[in-house]
Structures are given as structure tokens and as C-alpha cells.
Amino acid sequence: MHPKYRPDIDGLRAIAVGSVLAYHAFPSLLPGGFIGVDVFFVISGFLITTILLQSLAAGDFTYRDFYERRIRRIFPALVLVLLATLAFGWYVLLPGEFSQLGKQTTGGAAFFANLVFLGEAGYFDATAETKPLLHLWSLGIEEQFYIFWPLLLGLAWRKRWPILRVTLAVAIISFLVNVLTVQPYRAAAFYSPLSRAWELMAGGLLAVMRLQPTSTSADARPMLKHVQSVVGLGLIVLGLFMTRSTKAFPGWWALLPVLGAVSCIAAGPNGVLNKYLLSNRVMVWIGLISYPLYLWHWPLLSYARIVAGGEPSLQVRIAMVVASVVLAWVTYRFVERFVKLHLSQGMLRGLAAGGAALALVGVLVFLGMPQPRHDSQALQAVADATREDNYYGGFEESALGGQFVYRTGNGKHNVLLIGDSHVEQYAPRALELGRTQPDKARTVYFATKGSCPPVPGLFSGADTACDARRAAVLDLALQPEIDSVVLGACWSCYFTGVGPAVNYFVDDKKVVHPFQNGDGVDLALQSLGEVLRRLSAAHKKVYLVLGNPVGMDFDPLKQIEGSRLGGMRVSEQGKAPLPEDQAQFNARLKQVAEANGAQVIAPFASLCTDGQCLRSMPDDGSPAYKDIGHLRPRYARSFATYMDPALLDEDAGGK
After folding, report:
1. TM spans, by residue (predicted)?
2. CB 101 within 8 A of CB 357
3. CA-to-CA distance for 117 and 141, rounded, in angstroms?
4. Is the dihedral of CA 58, 61, 65, 66 positive or negative?
5. Which pLDDT score, from 0 to 100, does residue 558 have?
6. Peptide bond into 556 cis (omega under 30)
7. In sequence order, what are the residues at sequence separation of 6 or more whose Cβ sits closer than 8 angstroms to the Cβ of residue 425?
8. Mean pLDDT of 568-574
9. Taking the alpha carbons of 114, 250, 127, 628 in that order, is the dihedral positive or negative?
């Protein structure tokens, strides 16, 4: 059985998909637009739970029928979009990118895309914009819900468990997982079905309550319905403009779209805004094409960015939005409606087989079969550089002073390296010295955490429990078994460019000092100086690693010339202009270090000469960087010799 059609729910879908589309195409216009996905989750939870309970009550529920309906609803548009995305990817992507698209295709077709992206970088990072199937993470969440919830609900029905309590229990547990993991494990909280299920269960709770025998009539208390309608849309609008990608999301912030969507649905079709806004013909039409529109919009915008080599122009983004709407309507009119009108068991089997075949094709593409159109040894070298990220390969995972560390070497003196991934990038050099100069190599411990500079009080809007780790490893550095301490970070990421817009300093009195239009930068440098001075006073040999050049000019992909739509070749220009603002800030850091007893390690001195900085390997001309800021492991291993004074003893002899 299916619930009575409600045009206002299609209107709510229109708000959800429109918000996501606006955020992806024009992020500054609607900074919280990504919460549209959370609205979709509530709608799905409400409709699916209603369908399940009505079918269970009528005695005609079967798992086969339920999943056949899911295949009919999801597969036609999904298979088409996956095919188109994969085909265009073959035409424009580089070998490494096409391989990753294969993995994404398998995840999308097999409904575990969220778990694929959980193992990669976050939804809000820069590289996310060049993953054409990133948006399928939400489909993975929903499909995992469709597997889990019917089974549990069917069991609860047969066992005569109180459905409302079961639903509430699942929602509460999931919400607790969400708020407890969103700070220390932000990516997991975002992508995991365990921390997202409560959003679908919120819709499920509403469905259970509305189907309770004691529930009041849908037409009762009209004023309450109007209030629910206004409050619901108000909460969603509030979330659209207050939520930011830099906040800990979902967490508590997700309550805005979730409670807003619940309130809108609870208002019913006669709530004032539901009736006159959400049930508007244009809104309903957008809602009807919302699923294919969601599927089409992101690959188009992502490929536009990939082809442009950066953010596409406003005109191109507008064109991609229009193309998304057109393709969504064509898909709805000629694919989805055709399947709905001509559905047969053979067609169902064909759709399921198509999804399975795409999952298999994705595996083959991931393994390098076939290679994309842009396939050459030089292009492959660039692709290889972007994938080279095993900085801690060969290290021993260990514990030191209760802290997780990576260890290598067996020298007479112990050195502890603290900082973010720009300290981690030098791990291959430490391993290489342990192999080539074992008599002089120190015992090296890396205690790093991504996006966590060794500056007490420095925070960013996207902070993920950095402070606790930072405090613990700085205390560890004071322990007697540590002889030398190396501190470093992507200083320019925090203090230059766009960094000051999101970073700030919190003093001992918990007063926030912004970097931008405030004194946060001066206080952060003062805090760094105090750390260096305290370590020096404890008779440690202290090193401060200044930043290496970073920026789009150092992105390996920037070494590719030509058009992705035509021919491509790798540039022979092995250098890029020296970033003056970064060099100036490094000079400021050098003053802080020298004033507080630390020795400076200056990568710029080795990487840059005469206003130009290295971006290619000295031996074979392949990229020296993995991305816009990190030196690739192969470069660090062989050429980051400026790190050697911190990693080697002057006298030979081990323990």
C-alpha cells in the first residue's frame, strides 16, 4: 500500500533539491544549501515508514515487493547517470582520475558510495569538487536504511514490540552517535549511516505517530497546522543561512533542517505555506523531477570544474544548472515514466542486472581496464604523483607517553616531530635516513594530526578535536626521553591567503580573537613563541620547520597544458613564481624562532632561487608535489635534505 499523494511533499522536495543545487553552483549565495540533503532524509524516512506500516497493517507486505519498488524508483535514472558520467570521464579524465571514478561508480551502483568517500577526504574539501559522483553518498545512506529498517520494522511487527518505542530508540541512539562523533571523527559523522539514521527516523517517528489509532484527524486544529507549516519552513530557511561547511555538521546543527522538515510534513497539505507555496504547480513540478535533478547536477558541475581547471565562470555554472534541469525533465518524462508504465519482471531483472554490471565495470576501471583517452606516460606520471600519499609506509605504529605515534630508527637520541600533515610529509625522509645512515639516524617519532598546528589556542571553524591531541603531544615533548623536538605546519594555510577568514585564537579567558580584522595572528605567534621557549628551557634541541611553497601553481595538474576536451601534454616548465606573502610570513616565523631559542629549517632556501620555486622532480621532471601543498613522498625521501640536521646525530653509533 502507498500513502495518499501529497503535492506539498513534492514542494518540500523542490526546496531540498533547489538548496543543494544553489549551494553547489553558487555557494556564496546559499552557504547552508547542503542541508537540503537532510530534508530529503526526513521525507524518505516518513514515506518509507508509512508504506511499510500500512502494508504490514493490511497484511500484504513482502520484502520482495518492497525491494522491487525500490529498484523501479531508483535504478532507471541512476543507471543512466552512471553510464553518462563514466563515458564522459573516459573522454576527459586522466588515468588516476578515471581509476578513482571507477571506484566511485562501483560505490554508487552498489549503494556504498558513502563508505567509499568516508575513506577519502571530506565532503567540504577542495578535491571534493572534482569527484563527479560524490553526491551519491546520500543515496548510499538511504539505501542502507532501506535494507536495515524494513527488516527491523518487520521483526518488531511480528514480535508485537511497541513500534513507537523501537523507532524512538533507534533515533536516539543514532543521534547520540552523531553528536559524540562529529568533533573527533567529522568525516565518519558525516558519511556513516549510524550517525545519519536519526534523520530518517525523525520522519519515521512522524509516520508512526500519524498512524497511531489515537491520532487526531488531519483536519483537526487548523491553526496548529498553520503554525507547524510556518515554523517548519522557518527552521529550514534559518538552517540555509546559518549553517556553514566550517561548522561541526551534522551534529546539533542538523536539527534545524530535520525538525523543520518534520514540522512541514506534520502540518499536512492544508498548512498555510504547504497549501499556497509548497503545493504551487512550479514547486510540485520541480519536486517531481527532484531525483534525476539531484543525480544530474553534480556530475555536470564537477566536470565543468575539471575541464576549466578551477572554478568555472558564472555563465558556465548557470548553463550547467539549466542543463541539469533539462536532463532531469527528459529523464523523468522518457525514462522514469516509461519504466513506470511498462514495468515487467523482465524489465526489473534488466534494471538490477544493469546496476550489477555497472558495479563490475567500475571495478575494472579502477584496476585500469580500459585506460582513458588521455593516456600517455607523461600524463600517467602526473596522475601517479597525485595518488602518492603513503607517507607513513614502513613506519612502526607505536605508543609513546600514552599517545599514538609513528616510529622509525634505533638511534641513541630521540626526536619528536609535532604538527599537521606538512610535518607528516617528511616521514619518508626519516625512513630513508634510517635505511642509508643507520649509525647516525636518530630514533624518530611522528605525532601529527591533520589540520592541527602546534600552536595552543589556534582554532578554525572546521576544528576536529585538535586541541586535546595538541596539548597531549606538547606535554609529551617535555618528557625526559625526548632529546629533540621538531615543530612545523602549513603555516600559510592558517596565516595567509584565505586562512585568516576561518582561523582564530582563543586566549586563556576563552575570549575569541579573530585573525581577520583582529589581533589573533599576533597572539598566535606569541603562543608559538612561548611553546618554543618552554621546550628550550627544558634543555631540548628545538627546530621550527617553516612552510614550503603552496598554492595552485604547485598542483601537479597545473603542469598539464592543452584542453581536456581536445589534446593534452605535460609542460616542461619545472618552476613556479615564489609566493611573496608566504616568504614574508616565513621571515616573521624565523624571528619568532630565533627569539625563543629554536633553530630554523627553511624549505624555501632549498626549493626556491631567483624568485622561482621548484615544482618538478630534479631527476625525471615529474611533479614534486602531490597536490597544491604537500611534497610527494618520493621527493621528500630523496631530496628533502634540509630536514637532515633534525633527524641525524653528528656522532656515529647507535644504541
Report:
1. 12-29, 35-53, 74-93, 134-156, 163-182, 248-266, 278-296, 316-335, 347-369
2. no
3. 12
4. positive
5. 87
6. no
7. 391, 630, 631, 633, 636
8. 88
9. negative
d(CA 388, CA 114): 23
pLDDT, tens digit (0-9, with 9 covering 90-100), for 579-591:
999 999 999 999 9
pLDDT above 80 for 214 = no
Give CA–CA dist 635/633, Å, rounded. 5
Whether 651 contacts 615, CB under 8 Å: no
- Homologous superfamily assigned to 391-549+577-610+631-647: SGNH hydrolase (3.40.50.1110)
Task: Provide DSSP, 54-72.
Answer: HHHHHT---HHHHHHHHHH
Half-sphere exposure of residue 72: CA atoms within 13 angstroms, side-chain side: 18
pLDDT value for 1 = 59
Peptide bond into 370 cis (omega under 30): yes
* 3-state helix, strand and coil shares in percent for the chain, rounded to the nearest 5: 60, 10, 30
- How far apart (Å, rounded) are the C-alpha atoms in residues 624 and 614? 8
Helix (H, G, I), strand (E, B) or coil at 514: strand
CB atoms within 10 A of CB 99: 19
Per residue in 282-333, pLDDT (tens digit) is: 999 999 999 999 999 999 999 999 998 778 999 999 999 999 999 999 999 9
Where in the chain are the domains? 7-373, 391-549+577-610+631-647
Count Cβ neighbours within 10 Å for each residue of 463-492 and write b for 16 or more, e otherwise: bbebeebbeebbebbeeeebbbbbbbbbbb
Q: What percent of the chain has pLDDT over 90?
A: 79
489: helix, coil or strand? Answer: coil
Residue 262 pLDDT: 98
CA distances from 390 to 130, 269, 378, 621, 634 (A): 21, 55, 22, 21, 10
pLDDT tens digit string along 62-87? 999 999 999 999 999 999 999 999 99
Q: What is the 3-state secondary structure (H, E, C) of 275-323?
A: HHHHCCHHHHHHHHCHHHHHHHHHHHHHHHHHHHCCCCCHHHHHHHHHH
| Inter-axis angle of helices 290-308 and 7-25, nearest 10 | 10
The tens digit of pLDDT for each residue in 383-432 reads 889 878 889 999 999 999 989 999 999 999 999 999 999 999 999 999 99
**Least confident range of 277-281, 450-454, 528-532, 604-608:** 450-454
Please give the angle made by the CA atoms of 421, 425 and 427, to the nearest 5 degrees: 115
- Residues 19-33: what's their mean pLDDT? 94
Mention every residue, 6+ apart, whose C-beta is less than 8 A from residue 360.
106
The DSSP code for 263 is H
Write down the residue that cell numbers 630536514 correspond to.
643
Q: Read off the pLDDT band of 653 (50, 70, 90).
A: very low
Q: Answer with the residue of higher pLDDT: 218 or 348.
A: 348
In DSSP notation, 10-50 reads: HHHHHHHHHHHHHHHH-TTT-TTGGGHHHHHHHHHHHHHHH
What pLDDT is attached to residue 655?
Answer: 35
With helix as H, strand as E and coil as C, how does 563-577 read? Answer: CCCCCEEECCCCEEE
Cα 154 to its chain centre, rounded Å, is: 34
* Conformational region of residue 621, where left means phi above 0, alpha means psi within -120 to 50, and beta covers everything else: left
**Cα–Cα distances in Å, from 129 out to 124, 135, 386?**
8, 10, 15
Q: CA of 539: how far to CAs of 324, 481, 487, in Å? A: 63, 12, 16
| pLDDT value, residue 124 | 44
